[in-house]
Amino acid sequence: MTQTARGSVEMPSGTTEQSPTFESIDPRTGEIVGRHPIHDAAEVGARVSAAREAQTAWAELGFAGRKQRLDAWRKLLAKRLDELAGVICAETGKPLDDAKLELMLVVDHLHWAASNAEKVLRRRKVSAGIVMANQTATVEYLPFGVIGVIGPWNYPAFTPMGSIAYALAAGNAVVFKPSELTPGVGQWLAESFAEAVPEHPVFQLVTGFGETGAALCAAGVNKVAFTGSTATGKRVMASCAENLVPVLVECGGKDALIVDADADLAAAADAAVWGAMSNAGQTCIGVERVYVVDAVADRFLEMVAERAAKLRPGGEPGANFGPITMPSQVDIIRGHIDDALSRGGRAVVGGEHSVRPPFVEPVVLTDVPEDSTAITEETFGPTIVVQRVRDADEGVARANNSRYGLGASVFSRARGVELARQLRTGMVAVNSVIAFAGVPSLPFGGVGDSGFGRIHGADGLREFTRPQSVTRLRYRMPLNPMSFARAKGTVRRLVRVVRLVRGR
Fold it and tell me: With a threshold of 0.85, does the pTM exceed it?
């Protein structure tokens, strides 16, 4: 039986008991680029068991041993970057240079995770305080065991590797379920790890649809890292809750850009168009809303329109961006454009006619009601809404009036950091867009309907560990309050000491 990622179920002629498979499709052409198994619950369970069996030896390698092996994988990825970029292009349709940019970030993040795991996670002493001064106190971060990673299709290598690389560096094994639209990328990553680190099968792969992901959540993993829609994220949480499996959830956003009156307008317009339309707008931290101060709004809108109007989607090498990878997203994009225009919004570039599946041409909207779906819901297409505001503070207020809170950007010469700190988001770029995702030492994640938990950086390493606190008796205290045999007046004397030292 064969099932296409974008089609129906078929049974090959002459077969009766063949294991089910599905096809990976190039969204630019409809061409079949791969065939992959649909793993059922039993097969998922077997992969989790294999990962768990391998994890003990992986953890016992220690930080230095794991770094050596992750470095070998990183070097292989860097050497064969063009090869993996080709797989990404075939399954997502994005331009080759965009795929290469994604993989450059993968290599850099893998290097950071392997190089910094020991510094962040190793055992360290902490203060024991006054009452417990006779104790030596330490804390260290130990691996959970097996991490289930459920990845997205829009950045099929960079996004899941933000969990995979950090989880492996921390001493865990990983079972990875890539999107059904990009299983070939997941297969390439798993096979390349096995090639670089053949003696430690701690990176296992399962492929399939939602049922496979649900099976992974229920297969006894110790934590799940999920990237996808808010609705699916809630289902993942509900499934994991049955066994109290902790989760890390990143569910996209409706990111805003604030343009202050003193901003470099040319730089802001260039960044706005790139942030909104690179990868065909299919970026969870892409710019979807712009709030520009009225004093400079006309000029800014002209600059955005001029830049956006020059862009062309397509499947050829010279295209600025590729197709809409997931066909069902086309209707959402069309619906948001229609809602904005039917309720009084204006299309400065493009419009309803810009939707030509599988491609969507650039669309720049303005004067859109704030309760329009083009403002409130994630569009995930090459569209941008530019709105006028009285001042940057009003822009911040409107930006924060969203159930999402993933990333944001601010363009301002004088107030950039001040405005950034007022935004209810997990990340903010000042005088640039999306920059925070490329910095390996910065945590990545959101609030509200954008999810919770963090990948990347020290927080990302700790996300895949369990802190363990240990105390060890150094000497016996003459005043020991933690005994039924304590002398009368012990607590009274200790209270005096605490008041004397801590009551000042």
Answer: yes
